[in-house]
Amino acid sequence: MPVAPKEMSRKPFLRALAGEAVETPPFWLMRQAGRYLPEYRAVRASTKGFLDLCFNSELAAEVTLQPIRRYRMDAAILFSDILVVPYGLGQEVAFKEGEGPVLSPIRSVAELGAYEPNRLLERVGAVFGTVARVKRDLPSEVALIGFAGAPWTVATYMVEGGSSRDFAKTRKWAFEDPDGFGLLIDRLVDATILYLKEQVKAGAEALQLFDSWAGVLPEEAFRRCVIQPTRKIVEALREVYPDLPIIGFPRGAGLMYETYFRETGVSAVGLDQTVPLGFAKEKLQPIGPVQGNLEPLLLRLGGDRMDRAIDDILENLAGAPFIFNLGHGVMLETPPDHVARLTERLRAWKS
Ligand code: 1CP
Question: CB within 6 Å of ligand 1 — which residues?
């Protein structure tokens, strides 16, 4: 029997990340596990709080696998949250029903002294248990993505004390006291490296860095708070894992997307829905694989409008290394049937 070439035997998601234009592009969806799925809501109702779910390896592995069972995405993403890192450092983090995350805010360098980076891995140890369980139970063609928030985005939650509209306190600190704010970012760089190395050890095959609020910074601060910390994380991980695929998602980076891709050294960039497809094809795909970028609201609306938007993305980007995804997370109100329709359309595509 002829031996399949190595490329043929690898998972489609990893082939795309390695720079291959896969005939039927692989896909997964940010927030593919979550409240739009009734089976998620059932598990979630059985736990006290959201963090209890994140730190219960058995249940977190179960909800990680739920969307894979329904739709067979090409990748599963570890079920956890970007705010487990501040929690692991010793900050108070709570998720209030209907309110989102609430943290005891940090506003000065002096407060950094209270953090206990040496206890991080022990405090969030359950997350690595989730990774190992998912890896064990995942279908062989499906890849496992680990993740963390990028330092800037995590810092916004730590400084604001939760979600924010304008990030005024974080930006003020970053502009008024760049050295002091830089110490917070450095702490987060170190913590993120430790945390992600441990996820890879436990079985994550690729990583995504979520920089959901990258788009609010002017150029100088974007370089200092987004590009440089991301590059440090990428370099440190590559020292230990030279071939590790890392996806950077600098949401809202606009005209800085190209600089981000070139200068951080990430293997691929995740595109939000505002990135024009022509720009992605001409400026970003020559640098490396791209991932994205269906408007999440179109998945929620479904129908012909969604189909046309899917085809438009595929026609533009599927001829080069590409992973289909949304431009941001699946919306809570999304009917699960619409995800099934999207899945069928993607599976029927041939470049
Ligand atoms: O009760 C619940 O079910 C809470 C809803 C929820 C879920 C399902 C939260 C609270 N987090 C998550 C899971 C989650 N979060 C995952 C794993 C699941 C998957 O993707 O399938 C991931 C990767 C995240 C990442 C995350 N958390 C980000 C980055 C991506 C993004 O959405 O921009 C951010 C910003 C958070 C913070 C967060 N977690 C939860 C809330 C309500 C928030 C605040 C969001 C905001 O400020 O707008």
Answer: 30-35, 44, 50, 77, 79, 81-83, 95, 100-101, 147, 163, 210, 212, 329
**Sequential pLDDT tens for the chain (351 residues):** 454 555 556 999 999 999 999 999 999 999 999 999 999 999 999 999 999 999 999 999 999 999 999 999 999 999 999 999 999 999 999 998 888 999 999 999 999 999 999 999 999 999 999 999 999 999 999 999 999 999 999 999 999 999 999 999 999 999 999 999 999 999 999 999 999 999 999 999 999 999 999 999 999 999 999 999 999 999 999 999 999 999 999 999 999 999 999 999 999 999 999 999 999 999 999 999 999 999 999 999 999 999 999 999 999 999 999 999 999 999 999 999 999 999 999 999 998
- Tokens representing residue 330 in the block: 């699946």
Closest CA to 262 of 227, 221, 226: 227
Residue 293, H or E segment? strand 290-294
Q: Rounded to the nearest 5°, which phi and psi values hold at 72?
A: 55, 50
Beta strands in 55-171 (DSSP E): 75-77, 93-96, 100-103, 143-149
Active site residues: 31, 35, 44, 81, 157
**Which domains, ranges and CATH numbers included, belong to the chain?**
5-20+28-268 (3.20.20.210)
Probe ligand 1: pick from 28, 31, 48, max atoms within 8 Å of CB?
31
